[in-house]
Amino acid sequence: MDSKLVNLSNGPGYALWYGKQASLETNLVIVEAKQKDNLGAAEPQVLAYIGLVHSGRLEQGKQDTTVYGIASDSSTFVFYRISEGSKWCNKPKIWGQSKAGNLNIIGCLGSIFSEASALRAIPDGLEKPPAPV
After folding, report:
1. Are the C-beta atoms of residues 18 and 28 closer than 8 Å to each other?
2. Which residue, among 35, 27, 30, has the nearest Cα to 57 in the 3D structure?
3. Cα–Cα distance between 13 and 69 in angstroms, integer?
4. Percent of the chain at pLDDT exceeding 90
5. CB-based contacts of 41-44 (< 8 A; 24+ apart in sequence)
6. Among 16, 18, 39, 59, which residue is least crowded by beta carbons within 10 Å?
């Protein structure tokens, strides 16, 4: 990637918040590709947003600083992850190639959502999250 200074003037397309935005209580940022078949242009945007969330979570001393990102043009999904060790990786997956491939995409989404649910903010004054109803 070429190095150049950019201004992130808009937010990501979507984020899964499990608590307060000011406290960076999210583990998922989603960016929609502006044009079909130009998914590569979304990568710098995804990396910038998940990098900002990850570094902010580190600065706040969060216990889990792993952040996920997804870039999609609705047929290809590229899953990104920044680990607690600040290393990033990505894995592209294409919707519609096979039933097993589609289930794999759904499984990746389910795993990320489950992790966000486990990270949800604990209300002030409680020692542990309330039991499910």
Report:
1. no
2. 27
3. 11
4. 37
5. 42/71, 42/78, 43/71, 43/78, 43/90, 44/1, 44/6
6. 59
The encoded tokens of residue 61 equal: 């001393």
Q: How many CB atoms lie within 10 A of CB 103?
A: 11
d(CA 21, CA 8): 17
In the predicted model, residues of the chain with pLDDT beneath 50 are: 122-133
Angle at 55 between CA 118 and CA 26, to 5 degrees: 30
Locate tokens 């043009």: which residue?
73
Q: Which residues of 75-88 are buried (b: 16+ CB within 10 A; e: fewer)?
A: ebbbbbbbeeeeee
Tokens of 69: 């990102």
Partner residues linked to 80 by β-bridges: 69, 90
Report DSSP letters for 55-92, one per residue. Answer: HHHHHTT-S---EEEEEESSSEEEEEEE-TTS-EEEEE
